[in-house]
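Pipeline run #58 for the internal structure catalog. This entry was flagged by the ingest filter as a single-chain record with no existing model, so it goes straight to prediction. Upstream metadata was stripped on purpose; only the residue string is passed forward. Reviewer on rotation: M.T. Logging verbosity set to normal.
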Amino acid sequence: MRGRAGYALWQRAWASFTGINLPPRPGHAPGTAPRLTPAPRTQAAATAGWFALPSLPEAGALTASGSDTVVLEASSPDGRAFFVLRRTDGQTAEFALELVVRDTVDQPELATVTYTGPDGEERTLLIPVSPSRFGPAASFVGLDGFAAGSTWQATGPAPVPENPGWPSATVTRSVRAARNEATREAWRRVREGAGQEMRDTINGAL
């Protein structure tokens, strides 16, 4: 049995992908790792391809902690995509999302996440992932305006459509939300198959 208690989701996903046995972490008994929460589904969301993600606890329920703290983990209904919500700054309560996708084909894929901020404004982020030579495809993005009480949902990941009609403002916001080079590289892969206007928008945001 693999001892996975005490490991982050991406580490457990990487171990499953490679078949590596993770040694038990001190203070964690084997077999006691927290389970992934399947994303809730409603009939309407399932029909449209969207699924709700677990709600973030209210502000009073979040413990004060340092940066890079995992707040919650969830998986897509089919178990193919993993969503890891992280608190990246303990003082300002900024959040970021890690998306890990298994079994990607040899082309970029894209998930969409929408969420509401404290101001009630809905924000949309396009999150591409591209195949990796060293494990599952993954991207890491900042969630500007995400806070306790925010509601959010996701769809995908799915192959990037030909000539997507994404609003340029959404593309710009999504590209600028990238927190690491793997995510920016995924956008470069998306750019390769896009029309000139979309390429210009991605270039300007990169």
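catalog note: The CA atoms of residues 108 and 189 lie 6 Å apart.
catalog note: Residues 1-5, 16-20, 24-47 have pLDDT under 50 and may be disordered.
status: ready for reviewer M.T.
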